[in-house]
UniProtKB/TrEMBL annotation:
Annotated GO CC locations: cytosol; ribosome
UniProt domain Radical SAM core: residue ranges: 156-394
NCBIfam families attached to this UniProt entry: 30S ribosomal protein S12 methylthiotransferase RimO, MiaB/RimO family radical SAM methylthiotransferase
UniProt-listed HAMAP family: MTTase_RimO (MF_01865)
Official protein name in the record: Ribosomal protein uS12 methylthiotransferase RimO
InterPro entries xrefs: Elp3/MiaA/NifB-like_rSAM (IPR006638), Methylthiotransferase (IPR005839), Methylthiotransferase_N (IPR013848), Methylthiotransferase_N_sf (IPR038135), NA-bd_OB-fold (IPR012340), Ribosomal_uS12_MeSTrfase_RimO (IPR005840), rSAM (IPR007197), rSAM_horseshoe (IPR023404)
Cofactor notes: Binds 2 [4Fe-4S] clusters. One cluster is coordinated with 3 cysteines and an exchangeable S-adenosyl-L-methionine.
Subcellular location: Cytoplasm
Biological function: Catalyzes the methylthiolation of an aspartic acid residue of ribosomal protein uS12.
Cofactor entry: [4Fe-4S] cluster
Catalytic activity entry: L-aspartate(89)-[ribosomal protein uS12]-hydrogen + (sulfur carrier)-SH + AH2 + 2 S-adenosyl-L-methionine = 3-methylsulfanyl-L-aspartate(89)-[ribosomal protein uS12]-hydrogen + (sulfur carrier)-H + 5'-deoxyadenosine + L-methionine + A + S-adenosyl-L-homocysteine + 2 H(+)
Keywords: 4Fe-4S, Cytoplasm, Iron, Iron-sulfur, Metal-binding, Ribonucleoprotein, Ribosomal protein, S-adenosyl-L-methionine, Transferase
Amino acid sequence: MPAMTQNPPNLRPDLARAHIPELRRPGQPTIGMVSLGCPKALVDSERILTRLRAEGYAISADYNGADAVIVNTCGFLDSAKAESLEAIGEALQENGRVIVTGCLGAEPEYITGAHPKVLAVTGPHQYESVLDAVHGAVPPAPDPFVDLLPASSVSLTPRHYSYLKISEGCNHKCKFCIIPDMRGRLVSRPAHAIVREAEKLVAAGVKELLVISQDTSAYGLDRKHETERGHRAHIVDLARDLGSLGAWVRLHYVYPYPFVRDLIPLMAAHSESGGLVLPYLDIPFQHAHPDTLRRMARPAAAAKTLDEIAAWRAVCPEITLRSTFIVGYPGETEAEFQTLLDWLDEAQLDRVGAFQYENVKGARANDLPDHVAPEVKQDRFDRFMEKAQAISEAKLAAKVGQRLHVIVDEVDDEGATCRTKADAPEIDGNLFIDEGFEGLHPGDIVEVTVDEAGEYDLWGHR
């Protein structure tokens, strides 16, 4: 039987790879997990598997070894919904006993209409409901001398990096998005709990912490930025606390609020001393024309973003800026799109992705007038990515001859696949070492000299 689908990299940016060394003991109930969607969903999958492991369940990486399979779905775009339904269908065909959870679980009739044989459907981050469904499908049978000991966390990423989710939900009301409807309003974790989790991860060998949420900049707002057990629930304070642990700290999904500028000195300090926070910001700008942003109901003031970017670079010239954009949003004119291209020319972002606008069931953008024709969306997408690629190629070419620190992700007979501080796993580029890589292991951080550059990747030697 084939191994379970785990986010093919050509479809999704976050390939989930289970790293579970335990062997199944005779008679032990076993659960499989297919984890789709964003890294935030991946963290949910890890939490579910960790709870199940503590209850005495084994975890299977293939359909044949599982008594039942959990499919953690994505429901943000129609294309993601289709992928989730396909994954559910595959799990039903290969295993037959399937429990569905995740964002698409917020629409149970949509799932059961396509796959009436699923055992249960639960919504996003409904951990107790998932566990109840598993108990009903595959009753636990723990060995009290082995299974009921406190379990270490199950990881779906390589052991040298880990996603660290700091909050759930979102308070924004962007017209193209239904995340607040599926996952609710902002709920921040206590800062001391996040730092404690990070300390455990670093003690277990994690070299890179990837901070994620729906809106990282808003962290702690619902808690009125309280201080508890010596840690303040504010993203700047949290970043400083995490940066003191000795691991790389990478910030994702940061809205460009004014106080983001307070993070930049921490990144500049990293460049100088090797501590604190990586000089990397993942900011969802989405567009650049003020009228388009107004129709999106975006919270950021686009007119000031170029000034903010210039100010960040003045403090930390090495900063890497990553963003995603939507092309073909309802009402987008050629002039508005050209403004986006001109903005990108001036902003010179390092890492850029784009999506063609899609209707999402329940999103207010569906009702906007003047939807853009599919062929126009495709043309604008191609033009946008051509410009972004040219910018990336030029920026990488400028790194030839530089000495950079990289983290090793994989080593095989061909060489070592690494990432610079400018590259997040699965979504950005790589640096490849194809000579003198003997003795390297995943998680090693080494210094290299860059020899060659491509459109998105680098090559170098130690």
